[in-house]
Amino acid sequence: MLVANAAKWPQEMAALRTVLLQTGLTEEVKWRQPCYTHDGKNIAVMGEMNAGLTLGFFKGELLDDPDGVLVDNGPNSRSARRLFFTSVAEVEQMAPTVRRLVDNAVAVEQAGLTVGPAPEPELVAELVAELDADPALRAAFEALTPGRRRAYNIYFGGAKQSATRTGRVRKYAPKILAGKGLQDR
Predict the structure, then answer these.
(1) Which domain does 60 fall in, by range?
(2) 81 contacts 71 by C-beta, under 8 angstroms
(3) Is 79 inside any structural domain?
(4) 93 and 138 inside one domain
(5) Does residue 87 fall inside a structural domain?
(6) Helix axis angle, 10-21 relative to 88-110, nearest 10°?
(7) What angle do CA 50, 5, 97 make, to 5 degrees?
(8) What is the average per-residue pLDDT within 84-112?
(9) The pTM is what?
(10) Does the structure show a pLDDT above 90 at 142?
């Protein structure tokens, strides 16, 4: 398993792995990370970061978190939530909470609960202007999957200046017209 190859947080990862395996979850490797499943459904994933070890819950938004220990993954993440560890002592201290969250996550999966659809994002003004000016581009953009549309919108909106946002839209228009996502080749 990847725990043996941990580069930054090997003791913490080993301690957390022990806690997770005691919950009855199945350990698999997905996305080159230790992933923990129940009846084939993803429950949690461990990951090393520079600042610490994370335990991410795929449907963390739906979990009961009375202690407020789960943190959002970032502004563009909808449903995942995570715990953060920087020492074996923290893993040991949080072990009961981890077990409770795992039990809750398994119950969420067994109940068939799902995270609702993402709200349609407000498109960047420069993208809207280019779509209004080119009906073929609009049709191609609207034919993309919601995730691809969202990725483009986030990328275009990440530029500080309007000219840069417009330049990005124009640069990626051929990919959009080809039905490809931002990261597609």
Answers:
(1) 2-110
(2) yes
(3) yes
(4) no
(5) yes
(6) 40
(7) 65
(8) 96
(9) 0.72
(10) yes
Distance of CA 106 to the CA centre of its chain: 18
What does the pLDDT read at residue 43? 97
Are 26 and 38 in contact by the 8 Å Cβ rule? The answer is: yes
Residue 129 token pair: 């202007």
Residue 3 binned pLDDT confidence (cut-offs 50, 70, 90): low
CA distance between the termini of the chain: 31
Tell me whether residue 183 is in a domain: no
Residue 142 lies in a domain: yes
> Which pLDDT score is estimated for 1?
44
- Structurally, the chain folds into a number of domains equal to 2
Note the pLDDT of residue 2: 60
Among left, alpha and beta (phi > 0; psi -120 to 50; other), residue 41 is: beta
pLDDT for the residue 31: 87
